[in-house]
């Protein structure tokens, strides 16, 4: 027990120092009025709370999905190098980014970290590895890197996934033999020049022009105007030696559309090559460890062999050859490398959400405000129903999206040519949905932390700026949602025209009759997974049929399909969201079904219900298009946020003065999640604490305004145990280690 009290004393001293002064300045001597000894009879929840009610290691395996040992190995590598700013607190170590660097220092540090990880074999097999196992390892390690330093992850993504992926997908044997091994070894540094100043989402409209000189057997790349300059090219400003150039290919005066070429932009000494001009895009609101640049090509000549020719080629005498005659299909083939990038962006967005929630939850487990009666202790923030309602639905969504991300990765690594359309549509829908969720979550967590949310080292605000661009790069989210709706439209029209059953894109539910939703939704059937799935499928089915009808009406008036889609943008976005929400729910149901009966399955069921009911409550389309009556919508709201005393509620709570009025929401939903995010008193505190522990090695969590005051129990034992267990699983998801943060709250 002596060691436990020593740890309590140590945490209190750390917390005292953290509260007294900003980290950059040396701590002044403590005045007599501020003691560093343990006070208020505080002891960390992990020393006093009961055991978890389910297997947190199993929950971590569900959340991470794969390669847990590889993840832990990489975290350990980062802790062993000063490049990752490891800091010791007692017997524990955590890593945290240095937020006091200039843009130039950040860029230099990013390259040093790349070289450190390269020397230790982190990138082994990232390009040359074959099969699902190699791809899953790459995905897992990328997720770990993104948690620590998003700039580092993006820089690696540009080199391996965009530059390297383009060579893999678009190149042939001659390109693979020449470029892949040297790319994996970082013998060259690649970038990906697709976006231009004048064209981003509309890749077909890019203005860079490449012609062929049959005399010298060379391609000539030209930037014909200022709007054709390549812009926002990651790695171009300082480090890249080569780039994939996307350009219009003009052969004998005929434009053959967009093609990809390899061009060298710097020599081995870092000097810019002749006829190439490069400028820096400058400081950004985030990701300043990535050197984004601008590139102009002044009739740059490259060998004929530098055309990536798996889709199309040019013979030595200048004849254009392609195995794909349809220009639309040929263009679609050139977008293949973006799929992997969208997958990594979507999954990393979920991990960012976990960081924000862990931070906000831990803070609300220690910060108190106001009391409910005279001479009573102040109440923990997370004991307030309003605070719970801010964070718990986001936590449930984050669990749901974790499972969705794992599903997306699994179908990608097991892909076949027949699955390409499904992977494209699902990755587009998930990329938009998960990144939008991340930005909303980070903003809510920032606000939930009050002034402490502004502190850079607490990472919530830092992540907001670092991840903000995720809604734009590798596909603007709104454009992606319209692409999803167009793909569903095409699938519907083809099935009806050919009089075939729906197969793929999760549209099989449309082969039968429309599901019948109970006229009166009660607490029990609202929590039923099959009824939840029916409601989500009905919404998608009806929106798709409505979208088809609107497009058809415009076409009958002589309008183009493109015009009709633009004029029905709101309906298209509603359909895209409906597809994504349904897919996420179905992946959650599949994950839940694989778990044996027991406490963990019960927690997953609660989380799944909270996710589904939150979507029902938040999305106005359920009311707008009549999928829910006003009465049923009111029932959903009651399940999510109003007090009640149903049987399930009574099982989970012995309602006390504070919590009885607050948590139908928890009852019905994420106990696992809720437990993670919700923190009434001692036992709930542990859950939130455990949730945040998983993030500790990567960040400073908000400093507590004061050690928790002793108070009477508010949350019943069963609920607190659940909350404790779920948070612990979230903690394990991030690192698998026990770390301690600068606030001393572990």
TrEMBL record:
Keywords: FAD, Fatty acid metabolism, Flavoprotein, Lipid metabolism, Oxidoreductase, Peroxisome. Coiled coil: none annotated. Gene3D superfamilies: Butyryl-CoA Dehydrogenase, subunit A, domain 2, Butyryl-CoA Dehydrogenase, subunit A, domain 3. It comes from the Eukaryota. Its cofactor is FAD. Pfam families: ACOX (PF01756), ACOX_C_alpha1 (PF22924), Acyl-CoA_dh_M (PF02770). PANTHER family: ACYL-COENZYME A OXIDASE-LIKE PROTEIN (PTHR10909:SF352), ELECTRON TRANSPORT OXIDOREDUCTASE (PTHR10909). This is acyl-CoA oxidase. It comes from Nepenthes gracilis.
């Amino acid at each position: 027990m002596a060691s436990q009290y020593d740890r309590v004393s140590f945490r209190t001293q750390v917390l005292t120092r953290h509260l007294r002064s900003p980290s950059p300045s040396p701590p002044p001597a403590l005045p007599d009025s501020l003691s560093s000894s343990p006070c208020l009879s505080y002891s960390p929840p992990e020393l006093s709370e009961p055991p978890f009610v389910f297997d947190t290691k199993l929950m971590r395996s569900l959340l991470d999905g794969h390669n847990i040992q590889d993840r832990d190995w990489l975290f350990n590598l980062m802790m062993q190098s000063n490049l990752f700013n490891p800091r010791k607190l007692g017997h524990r170590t955590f890593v945290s980014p240095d937020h006091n660097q200039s843009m130039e220092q950040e860029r230099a540090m990013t390259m040093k970290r790349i070289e450190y990880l390269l020397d230790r074999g982190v990138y082994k097999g990232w390009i040359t590895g074959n099969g699902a196992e190699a791809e899953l390892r790459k995905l897992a390690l990328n997720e770990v890197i993104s948690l620590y330093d998003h700039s580092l992850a993006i820089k690696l993504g540009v080199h391996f996934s965009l530059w390297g992926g383009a060579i893999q997908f678009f190149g042939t044997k001659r390109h693979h033999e020449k470029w892949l091994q040297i790319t994996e070894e970082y013998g060259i540094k690649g970038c990906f020049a697709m976006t231009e100043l004048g064209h981003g989402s509309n890749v077909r409209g890019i203005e860079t022009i490449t012609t062929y000189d049959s005399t010298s057997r060379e391609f000539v790349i030209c930037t014909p105007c200022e709007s054709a300059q390549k812009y926002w090219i990651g790695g171009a400003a300082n480090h890249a030696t080569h780039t994939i150039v996307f350009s219009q290919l003009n052969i004998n005066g005929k434009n053959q559309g967009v093609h990809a070429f390899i061009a060298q932009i710097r020599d081995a000494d870092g000097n810019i090559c002749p006829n190439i001009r490069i400028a820096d895009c400058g400081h950004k609101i985030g990701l300043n460890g990535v050197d984004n640049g601008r590139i102009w090509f002044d009739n740059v000549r490259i060998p004929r062999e530098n055309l990536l020719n798996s889709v199309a080629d040019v013979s030595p005498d200048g004849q254009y050859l392609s195995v794909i005659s349809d220009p639309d299909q040929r263009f679609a083939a050139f977008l293949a490398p973006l799929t992997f990038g969208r997958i990594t962006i979507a999954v990393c967005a979920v991990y960012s959400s976990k960081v924000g929630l862990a931070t906000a939850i831990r803070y609300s487990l220690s910060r108190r405000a106001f009391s409910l009666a005279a001479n009573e202790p102040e109440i923990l923030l997370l004991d307030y129903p309003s605070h719970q309602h801010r964070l718990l639905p986001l936590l449930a969504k984050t669990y749901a999206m974790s499972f969705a991300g794992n599903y997306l990765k699994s179908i990608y690594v097991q892909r076949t040519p027949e699955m390409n359309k499904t992977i494209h549509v699902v990755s587009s829908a998930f990329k938009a949905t998960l990144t939008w969720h991340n930005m909303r979550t980070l903003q809510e967590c920032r606000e939930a932390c009050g002034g402490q949310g502004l502190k850079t080292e607490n990472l919530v605000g830092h992540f907001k700026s670092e991840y903000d661009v995720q809604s734009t790069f590798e596909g603007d989210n709104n454009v992606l949602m319209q692409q999803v709706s167009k793909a569903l439209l095409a699938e519907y029209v083809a099935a009806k025209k050919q009089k075939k059953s729906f197969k793929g894109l999760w549209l099989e539910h449309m082969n039968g009759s429309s599901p019948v939703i109970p006229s009166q939704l009660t607490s029990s059937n609202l929590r039923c997974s099959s009824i939840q799935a029916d409601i989500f499928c009905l919404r998608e089915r009806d929106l798709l049929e409505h979208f088809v009808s609107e497009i058809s009406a415009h076409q009958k008036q002589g309008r183009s399909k493109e015009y009709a889609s633009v004029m029905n943008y709101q309906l298209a976005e509603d359909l895209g969201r409906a597809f994504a929400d349904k897919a996420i729910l179905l992946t959650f149901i599949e994950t839940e079904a694989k778990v044996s009966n027991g406490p963990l399955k019960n927690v997953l069921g609660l989380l799944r219900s909270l996710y589904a009911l939150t979507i029902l409550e938040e999305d106005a389309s359920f009311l707008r298009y009549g999928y829910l009556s006003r009465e049923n919508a009111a029932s959903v709201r009651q399940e999510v946020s109003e007090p009640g005393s149903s049987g399930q509620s009574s099982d989970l709570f012995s309602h006390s003065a504070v919590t009885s009025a607050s948590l139908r929401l928890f009852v019905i939903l994420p106990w696992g999640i809720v437990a993670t995010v919700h923190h009434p008193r001692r036992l709930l505190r542990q859950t939130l604490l455990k949730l945040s522990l998983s993030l500790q090695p990567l960040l400073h969590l908000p400093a507590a305004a004061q050690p928790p005051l002793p108070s009477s129990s508010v949350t019943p034992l069963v609920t607190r145990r659940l909350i404790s267990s779920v948070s612990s699983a979230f903690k394990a998801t991030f690192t698998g280690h026990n770390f301690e943060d600068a606030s001393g709250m572990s």
